[in-house]
Amino acid sequence: MCGIAGIVNFVPEVAVEETRLRRMQQVLVHRGPDGEGTAILGHVGLGHRRLSIIDVQNGQQPMCNPEQSVWITFNGEIYNFQALRQDLLRLGYAFRTKSDTEVILNAYQHYGEDCVRHLRGMFAFALWDAARGKLLLARDRLGIKPLYYCRHADTLLFASEIKAILAAGVAASFNRQILTEFLATRFIAGAETFYQGIEKLLPGTILTWTRDTGVRCRRYWQLPTSLDTAPSSPLERAQLVRQDLEEAIKYHLVSDVPVGLFLSGGIDSSAIGALMARRTQGALHSFAVGFGERHCDELRYARLAAGAIGSRHHEVTLTSDAFFAALPRLVWHEDEPIAFPSSIALYFVARLARAHVKVVLTGEGADELFLGYNRYRVTAWNERLGRPYNGALPQALRERVRHGVQRLPAPMRRYATRTFLGVRPGIRNLLYENFSVFPQSWHGALLTDRSLTARNPYRRELACFSDAPGGLLERMSYVDLQTYLVELLMKQDQMSMAASVESRVPFLDHRFVERAAAIPGRYKLRGWRTKAVLRDAVRDLLPKEIMTRRKMGFPVPIDAWLRGRYAALTESLVLGPRARARGLFEPSFVAHMLHEHRAGAANHADRLWLLMNLEIWQRVFLDGEAPEAVLESDLTRCARAAA
Length: 643
Prior knowledge:
By secondary structure, this protein is of the alpha+beta class. It has 4 domains: 2-219, Aminohydrolase, N-terminal nucleophile (Ntn) domain (Glutamine Phosphoribosylpyrophosphate, subunit 1, domain 1), CATH 3.60.20.10; 234-371 and 485-548, HUPs (Rossmann fold, 3-Layer(aba) Sandwich); 374-442 and 450-478, no CATH class; 558-642, no CATH class. The protein is 44% helix and 15% strand. The chain has 29 helices and 17 strands. A 6-stranded antiparallel β-sheet has the order 2-3-1-9-8-10. A 6-stranded antiparallel β-sheet has the order 4-5-6-7-11-12, covered by helices on one side. The radius of gyration is 25 Å and the shape is globular. The two termini are 43 Å apart. The model has no long low-confidence stretch (mean pLDDT 91).
C-alpha cells in the first residue's frame, strides 16, 4: 500500500517541474511513511510514497526496466505475483528484485495493456512507456485502490488522493451538480467528484494517453452478466463458497510483514479471522472499536469471536469528544464530506492496529455479495407482497394506506414507510427513493437552487440495474457492487491509510467475486435469513451467538450525540452564518429538521450528519481553513456547557 502521483505535460518540450511533483508527493506522506521517490522523465514526472510490505529492502519506486524505457509507480498488492513471476521468467524476463512492482513492469512489456487481466489483487498504478510515448493508468476491478485524475491547462495530473492534485496548483472548485446525488445517496457513484474537473478512474478501467490519441478510458473487466443456474443444493453451494473463500484468504496473507484483522464480531470478519488463524504462524492480532453506549457497542461480540479464533485481541473505546475532535482532520484525509460516521471509528481502530501491524484483513464486500443488508430483505418482501413497483395495488388503496402510515408514531412510521405499505410504484422508488437520506421529493423544498433538482440522483444506479442479470435481488447486488461498495472501499482506504495501515478485503478477490456474484439470490436470502449460503459455509467455524446475532453494521450513536451535548455544534454548522452565507439550503427547512430531531419527534441524524460534513468540507477545501481550527471554538463551547 502506497501513494502515487504524477504529471504529464501534453507539450513534450515542456519539462515537469520537480518542485510541483514533490508538493503532490509530500501531501501523501501518510500513505507511505517508509520511503519516497521521484522520476523526472522530461515532460513526464512520477512520484511515490512507500509503505513497505513486499520486498522491504528492494522495492523502491518509481521503478524502471533495465533499459529505463518503461517506468512505473504503483499502489496496492498483487497476490499472484510469485506465480506470474515464474511465468515471466520462463518467457525470458529477468528480475532484479522480489517485488510485485517489477512483476507488473515485466507483465506490461509482455502483455501490453492486457497485463491488468493477469493481475490478482488490489492496485492503482501509472506506467510510462517512453518508447511509445504512452501513459497507462489502471485501477483494480472492484475499486479497492483509489486513483484520481485531472486535465488541467496543458497537463494531466493524477494521484491516489485528490489533495495531491490540489497541491499541484489546481483550484478547489465545488461541483454543485453532484449535490442532489450526495443528498440522496451519500456519495457520487460515477466518475465525478465534489471538485470541478477532477474525476476518479472507475473500477475495472484503464486510462491511456498519447500525444496522438489524447486521453482515452476503456473498461477491461465487469461483473458476470449471467447467473450460475446449474442445479445444486444449498449445501453444495455453501461448500463451494467455503472453498473459494479459503483460497482468497490464502492469497491475501502474502506479505513480508505481520498481518492482523479488523474484527467487529460479525459473521464476515469473524469467518475471515477463523480461516486466517489456521494459516497464521504465531499470534494473530485482532482489533476492534466500540462506544460507551451499550446499544451501539459491538465489543462483546468481538471479544467472543477473538476467543473462538484464538487471536491476541486489542480494542479501543471511542468517546464523543475524541470523535468530533478528529472529524475535520479526517474530512481532510477523505477529501470529501464523510458519508458515514463509522469512518471515524474505522480510523481509530486503524490507529490502534498500527502499533502492532502494517496490514489488516477486513470483511468488506460480503454484504453486497451475499445480500446482508436489511434493505435487501425489506425490498424482497415489498416485491412479494403486491409487487408495488408494477403498480399492482390499487392507487386508491395505496393512498389510504399512505395517509394511515403518516399518523403512526415516528419510529413506527419510519419503518412502515419502507415496507410495501408506503412505497410508491416504480423501481426508482422501491430501491432508491425508499432508502435515500434526503428523498428527491424533498429537494425542491431543501435546495435554494431549484435547477439542481432536474438531475436524477439515481441515474447510475438505474443504469446498472437495467444492465444486470437475474431478478430483483441479483440486480440489487449487481448495482451495489458497482456503486455503494465503491464508496465504502474509498472510506476503508482513506481511513486506514490515514493511520498508515494497509487494509485488504478477501471477499473482493475478483475470482471469488465472479463466482459469488453469479450465485442466484435464492441461495443468499432465504425467508428473513440474510447471507444464507455464507452462513452455511462458515457455520462450523464460529460460536452460535455470532451466527445468530442481529446485524449492527458498525453503529455510531450519532443520533443521541446530535440531540444532546453536540446539538449546539450541529446548529452552528448547518444554520450558522457561514452555512447560511453559502446559500445552498433553505434555512427554514433545515431549522425544522433540527427542531424535530432535538425534540425527538423524528430522527434526522443521517441528514444532519451530511449537512454538517458538507460544511466542514467547504471550510477545509474551499475556504482553506486548517482542519484543527474548523471546530475549535464550537468544541470549546460544548465542553464548557457540559461542565
